[in-house]
Amino acid sequence: MKSENEDAVTQHNKRNQFENKIDSTQVMKAIRLHKFGGAEVLQYEEAPLPGLKPGEVLIRVHAVGINPPDWYLRDGYKMLPPEWRPPVPLPVIPGSDVSGVVEAIAGDVQGFSVGDEVFGMIRFPSFGESAAYAEYVTAPASDLAHKPAGINHVHAAAAPMAGLTAWQFLLELGHDVQNPLQPEMHRPVPLKGKRVLVNGAAGGVGHLAVQLAKWKGAYVIAVASGKHESFLRELGADEFIDYKKTPPEDVVHDVDLVLDTLGGPTTGRFLRTLKRGGALFPVFLGFSDAEEAAKLGVTVSMTQVRSNGPQLAEFGHLLDAGTVRVAIDSTFPLADAQKAHERAARGHIQGKIVLTVV
Questions:
Q1: Residues 192-244: pLDDT tens digits?
Q2: Residue 46 backbone dihedrals phi, psi, to 5 degrees
Q3: Domain count of the chain?
Q4: Kind of pairing, strands 195-199 and 219-224?
Q5: Could you tell me the residue range of the domain that residue 270 belongs to?
Q6: Is 333 inside a domain boundary?
Q7: DSSP of 104-131, one letter per residue?
Q8: pTM of the full predicted structure?
Q9: Counting Cβ atoms within 10 Å, is residue 316 exposed (0-12), middle (13-18) or buried (19+)?
Q10: Same domain for 251 and 332?
Q11: What span, in angstroms and rounded, lies between the C-alpha atoms of 216 and 225?
């Protein structure tokens, strides 16, 4: 058995070997955009290898989960008012969700070693010089968790943003950053014994929210298109509503909580489904019925998902145990990121879309 000193020497040598290697190559393959627009602006090309900074880990990426913020960035955040659009220096690599293997660590990093399999949502909601659609990415160690041994890189890459969104909305916020759009901090509500409706239940956030709510003892009503019914019942949904046949607000009443993963300007219709004292959690912007909500005694609250390695580790334990599973809609090679975004644009996604990196 190696001593701790021998292990430290091995890690140091591995780190030096990698640094020597990147000195001679300097580039990697990545998806970058040089202008904003549709899927066609995603270019597979050589890009500089990211440099390792204090507190960071360098990851050899095996898989990348794609998420709505990826296409919001791609089109220049057109969905936001102009004054809310963050400056984006071009060219830029999109993406936040990765699973891969640690290639190097900064000297001040604890808890990770070269060769560890890790997954994480990196730097979200901000972004930096290094992002996910690439062969290598640097990440703050605080954004990472060890990949669950019981799942592969594709499923691990699919989990972080969707899983943390469901977790932070439903179970534990995990940060103290104030949402400027509401006076109160977002507060999850107790779920045990409660009636919870999940709209958009087959999507990335939705199908994980269904499972987390069931895990916490809720009675779950899933809303999606009819083709997803068997999928959602397998995940534990107690009731299913095909929104194409029946508007859920016409048939559901006295719900304690609605998680509307679609959000937007139509989310106010779910006020009709809630009991007095209930809560409506829209995942995306657009709710404009605050006066009606107040009359009905309904709390409307949302939050911005944020990177959180410790929460992701907790979620990873559920994935490892099979308590929660991540569904994969489809996979595409990194070079085919355009096709992956085109698939996302067609909608009706069951689970998550993932890019694979060879």
A1: 999 999 999 999 999 999 999 999 999 999 999 999 999 999 999 999 999 99
A2: -80, 145
A3: 2
A4: parallel
A5: 165-300
A6: yes
A7: EE-TT--S--TT-EEEEE-STTS--S--
A8: 0.92
A9: buried
A10: no
A11: 25
